[in-house]
Fold:
Amino acid sequence: MTRRRRHHQGRVDAPVLLALTVAVTLFTVLPMLLSVSAGLTNNFSRGLASGLTTRWIAEVWALYGATAWRSLLLALACVVVALLVGVPCAWALARSRSRAARLFEELLTLPVAVPGLATALALILAYGQLRGFRQSFAFILVGHVVFTLPFMVRTVSAAFARDDLQSLDEAARSLGARFVQRFLGVLVPAVAPSIVAGSLMVFTLSVGEFNLTWMLHTPLTRTLPVGLADSYASMRIEIGSAYTLVFFIVILPMLWGMQALARWIENAHGSSPGPRR
Amino acid sequence: MDHPPDRAAERTRVDVVDCAKTYPGGAQALQRTTLVVEPGEVLALLGPSGCGKTTLLRVIAGLVDPDAGGRIAFNGDDVTARPIEQRAVGMVFQHYALFPQMTVAANIGYGLRVRGVAPEALRRRVGEVIDLVRLGGLEQRRPAQLSGGQRQRVALARAVAVQPRVLLLDEPLTALDAKLKEALRDELAQLLRQLHITAVHVTHDQNEALAIADRLAVMQAGRIVQVGRGEDLYREPGHPFVAEFLGRVNRLQREAGRGLALGGIELPCPPALGASATLLVRPEDVQVHAGAAPGTGWGQARVLQRTFLGDRVQLRLAVAGQAEAIVSDQPRDCPVAAGDTVAVTIDPRRLMAAALEDAS
Structure:
């Protein structure tokens, strides 16, 4: 009886849900389409009637092209640092049950909650006088690592904390492996899918990061999002929109590539025979 | 490292001396325990969950430090202070803990590789062990592509590839389903004999322990209750817990100094049972005769329940003089039905005393 009623309700709801989904999707996609089309029209105020052009894209590329490469390099560097610092840190946090470790974990997560502006201001107050550092990309890199590290650490330490990882560690120990051999040869490969997921997240966050970067950048260390803000503020609307298009063109293939790589690693890795996620 | 394959590995005697384990927080997982595992022997640590058997195994392995005063020696060589990496033990884990990203061959060769064994010697040894556990043809598979039984064999092969002094097995068959478990149990028993290696085997399954081990150490509440050969423990348990854990038993009551009241008769008890008020008897030793008593020495019982178990029939009997129902195992063709009145008797020589400790 109840089952039949639920089934019946489901049928009545379906068209409503479908309509709602379509409406929300259109509402969300429309601005994107409009923005992209604005970057391709001669004169946005006169609409598509003014004709299509790639002139704005060329102009953006000439003015801001360097920011795209900088952003990609920065994001890759951020992933590398987050891996080198975050993976050992994740292992230590997963293994320790001490109060200090829990406190450290909270501290690590703080920059996600604290506005990026505040973090950036603190970095400038502390290290702003070190001119070489202040004016280099390393300064922005530090900001990005502070912001993205918790995402890597949380993802990977959840994987390290699983019971089957503890057994893998003990098995490797029983076979005589020293810590470094176990860590690099057994434990890190065993959580490879989580490390890849963490890396993807760090990369994505770093590419789109604006708050911190806006405070930390110099005219010579502008990233893609900062350039975007600059073009919106000081150029024609068509240039800002073309910039968005450039952003898509640069970032999307990169993300797709990394996701394909992640899938490939996951497949090559095979799923563990033990309990898993 | 490069022993020829047919040479038996050095046989190690394991001494556990005064080892106890108290966890931070005060939980005492293991009471002060002393135990000897003879060279080449397979010893089972048998007991219900929480009895301390896994803790004892981990103390021997070097994964858990015993409380101060405890000592572990392999052939007289004190290894108490050495971590597991330096104890030269092989260990088979409950869920095998195979390295998921490595092939079968790489898993088995891992211990040799971290020791820096030359590739040629490594390949040879891995090949030997793969032949031993009959995993030929699966060398390049990954653990996820193997069946439960195959994984179990890889885990064993990986543990013995480095020719450990002692092999430690932590519930090695628990992760398998019942049918496979039985087949692998016999295979494992045979393999351990072939290896001639001292082994300690933790299990909660008495059939597994009886089939695999030379001797059993039955554990309860953090201490070893009794150690001995499986058959001896089964026939003459020194403790009611051992009798009850190794197979099933009926508990029978009698008045002090008298025979056993059994359905209207009084069964004479051998003097060896002493004054024990509680006697134990195994279901297969309770004889049942359909219909009237075939002679003297048979009491009367009413069948409460008849359960067909395939290879046998289990009867629950209400017997005058005994408060609890008595369970009897009968051949599978037993015609008795629930509600029938039957004759019942017990060979007094099959009665076991629930020892004095029972009072505690």
Summary: Residues 14-243 of chain B form a domain with the Rossmann fold fold (CATH 3.40.50.300). The interface with chain A takes residues 61, 63, 83-86, 88-91, 93-102, 110-111, 114-115, 142-146, 151, 158-159, 162, 168 of chain B (CB under 8 Å). The helical segments of chain B are 53-61, 104-114, 119-132, 148-161, 178-195, 206-212, 230-235, 240-245.
